[in-house]
Recover the amino acids of this structure.
């Protein structure tokens, strides 16, 4: 990558994918916490 290159804004698809992965990570974390609680109660 050269210094003269334009700003390295990631393409829309990449940003969308990163947003989706972030949401998926949050969802997985919540599911894991919920599973821990359920297993702890049993």
């Amino acid at each position: 990558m050269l210094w003269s290159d334009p700003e390295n804004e990631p393409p829309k698809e990449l940003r969308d994918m990163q947003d989706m992965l972030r949401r998926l990570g949050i969802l997985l974390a919540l599911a894991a916490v919920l599973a821990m609680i359920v297993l702890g109660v049993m």
Notes: The chain has a mean pLDDT of 88. The helical segments are 12-41.
